[in-house]
Each structure stands twice: as C-alpha cells, then as structure tokens.
Write a structure and sequence with these properties.
15% strand, alpha/beta, Rossmann fold
Length: 337
C-alpha cells in the first residue's frame, strides 16, 4: 500500500512538472510575440491585415510591369471596384471595409508599386512609377465596363488623375480623405524626425476621442517613414508637380464622391470643399468622429458610407442639380450623421 501511494505521488509530481514546463514555454512564446509586436508594430499590422484579406476570401495575384512585379488581391463577382490605398500603406488597409461589399462587386486591391509586396523594393520611388503601375493594372483588368475607383489619400489622388486621363475607363471615383490638389498643412511632415513629431502627426490624423497612439508604434512610424515608401517617394519629389490638378479639376468629367472623416486635420473639410468646388460633378459625404484614415480608425462607419454612396446615383452635373454640397449642405450632412 505504501509503495502504491509513493507511485501515485510520483505520478502527480511528474504531471505537475510537465504542466509547469508547458506554462513556461507558453509564457516564453507570449513574451516573444509581445516583443515582436512592440519592435515591429507596423510589420505586424501589415501581416495581420493581409491575413484578414485571405480569411475574407481574397486571393493574391500578380502582374509584371515596367517597374517589376505588382501584387494585387481579388475576390467577388459583379462590376469591378478597385481600391487604392494611401502612401506608406498596403492592400490590407481595406480589410475591415470590404466584407459587406463582396456580395455585389468584384473587388481588386493592389499593393501600389513600392508598397507592400510590390516592386520596386528599394531606391527612390517617383510618383510616375506609382501611377504607371496603377495604369498598367487597370488596363489589364477585364472588367466588361467602366471601373469604379475608390482611393484613400494618395490613392484618391491617383484615382482622380487616372479618371482625368482615361475618363472612358472610369464610371465614378470615390475619394476618401484625399485628392489631387496641393495640400494645406505644410507644417506637418509625413516623415517625423522623432517620437514627439510623430505624436503631433498622429494627433492631426485621428479624432481627438480616439485612443492615443502608443509610444512603441510612434517609434516605428519614425523609423519606417524614413526608410519605407514615404521616404523613398520624398526622395523623388521632383516629379509630383505633373500629377497635381490645381486649376484643371474642371476637366474631370467623371462623377466624384468625396467621403470624408470630419476630424482630419491633415486634409481638412475645407480641402474637400476646394476639390468639390472645382469638379463638374461632385458630392461630399462626411463621417463624424473620424480622421484621415477611416479604414483604420472607423472601418464600420466607412463601410456603411461606401455602401450608401454606391447605392446612390452618381453626382449630377452642376446644371442638372446640386452636385456639389454647399457649406450649408455640408453642415446639414454633418448634423444628420
């Protein structure tokens, strides 16, 4: 009987040792994961958002172009909806928005040239290279009709320029907190030199009530802005001028909906009004309590607004109705939100 008890006691001890060892391994893995996230915050964001696209049903495809291989994600059936992300971002930025749209559209989301997985992966990144990659992709798509282009920030700029140059290929543009006019906030840099400069930038990009950006993310923003696509594009800034449409927006015949986070202090509602005032066919829809990057800060609200806008008739020409929202109308829209 004593030997039996000793045997059972020894068994419990072995099991306890095994459990303690397992917990130690789990704790080590968790610590390593937390360390990785803290040290590689933006890389973790990119990886997780791209995995979310896969889970939503998107497949990764590629196209060989002048600047190298361009990768894009595709899913769904119906008329073609192309989503263009902003500078320094990648296709996964839209993962929280596309789910509700897949039932009605074929959705294509590229990594813009020099962004995400798309080449070129190093060296200066002129706007010409980025725009030409978009042009090559859109020319390659067998859409069966004109495309709907949804662009955020620089993506909105690219979409409007493409619509200006190829109006027969575009049914409509939806510009999310972005456009092809010269910016207003010359005091803000997309390449912050230190944590405090990054904090100032992020405060301008987000609604005041949103959670503040953690310090380890701010530090990664400083590092990645300098060596990533933003820094590479800034190194080739000399060709940007030819893509600005100041005083030429009246030449864009394609209807444009501007969907705007009201709290954006980088590209404010005044900027949106300037764009709308110069377009022949434009309408502004605002998103309350949301900043420059609605797909990241308030994806559900952006998805809802995109659904509403896409279900509406495109903005009418000025002589056929109130295509441009007046300041009074914009105030009314904001109150309704």
């Amino acid at each position: 009987m004593t030997r039996f008890r000793e045997h059972r006691t020894g068994g419990r001890g072995s099991a306890l040792t095994w459990i303690v060892a397992l917990l130690a391994v789990v704790a080590l893995i968790v610590s390593a994961a937390l360390w990785y996230v803290r040290e590689n915050a933006l890389a973790f964001y990119e990886r997780s958002t791209r995995q979310a696209l896969v889970k939503t049903g998107f497949e990764l495809r590629s196209l060989d172009g002048e600047a190298g291989r361009l990768f894009y994600w595709e899913a769904g059936e119906g008329s073609t909806l192309v989503l263009l992300h902003g500078v320094g971002d990648q296709a996964g930025a839209f993962q929280g928005v596309v789910g509700d749209l897949l039932g009605d559209y074929r959705i294509v989301i590229p990594d813009l040239p020099g962004h995400g997985a798309s080449e070129p992966s190093e060296g200066p990144l002129p706007m010409t290279v980025v725009y030409r990659g978009v042009e090559e992709l859109l020319e390659s798509l067998e859409s069966g009709g004109p495309l709907t282009l949804v662009g955020h920030s620089m993506g909105a700029w690219l979409a409007t320029v493409y619509a200006h140059r190829h109006p027969d290929r575009v049914a409509r543009v939806i510009a999310v907190n972005g456009g092809p006019l010269r910016g207003e906030r010359t005091d803000l840099s997309l390449m912050p030199a230190d944590r405090e400069a990054a904090r100032t930038l992020m405060a301008a990009l987000r609604d005041p009530a949103s959670e503040p950006t953690p310090n380890f993310v701010l530090d990664d923003i400083v590092e990645q802005a300098a060596k990533g696509p933003i820094g590479r594009m800034m190194a080739a800034w000399e060709d940007f001028e030819q893509y600005l449409l100041d005083d030429r927006l009246s030449e864009v015949p394609v209807p444009v909906d501007l969907v705007w986070g009201e709290s954006d202090q980088l590209m404010t509602l005044d900027y949106a009004k300037r764009v709308a005032d110069q377009l022949p066919r434009a309408r502004i829809t605002t998103i309350a309590a949301c900043g420059h990057h609605p797909a990241n800060e308030c994806p559900a609200a952006l998805a809802e607004k995109l659904g509403e806008v896409l279900s509406m008739e495109p903005p009418a020409p000025l002589d056929e109705g109130d295509g441009v929202v007046t300041p009074e109308g914009l105030e009314r829209l904001s109150e309704e939100d």
